[in-house]
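Our preliminary data section would be incomplete without showing what the modeling component actually yields. Below, a chain of 131 amino acids is followed by its predicted structure, encoded as tokens that our downstream tools consume directly.
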Amino acid sequence: MTLEAVNNYWNGKAIRRARLKLDNEGLDMNEFGPFFEVDPKRPETHVFCSLTGQTLNRRRTELLHHLKGRRYKHFLRQHEAKKHKKVSEALDPDSDLESRSKLAAEKPYPLAVIRSRHLKIRVFLARFGQE
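Predicted structure:
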């Protein structure tokens, strides 16, 4: 075999596919974050990003490209903002009460408390005949 034939074989399609297969064999999905799930339709070859709703090929290069993308970063910022908002509401329960009292002060509806066996239900009754 000549050196040119060996180079052609080494740079050919079969060797490229074998290299890709080796690169993706030890692919740990946890290193890319919690949003990547196995695609139920094609579990061997594809991954589903639950953040953006996209189906991606199960290749390290494609997943890294997706992580660097503008769309993924945008949805990640939105997700972090929602998460931060939930945590801040959980840590400060008085803020929710304050906002409810402000709403009650703005709307002049009488508050009726209806008691059932085990449940207190607060009902805002609309004023009849008034706009």
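Strands lie at 36-38, 46-49, 54-57, 111-115, 120-124. The CA atoms of residues 56 and 62 lie 7 Å apart. Preliminary results of this kind motivate Aim 1 of the renewal.
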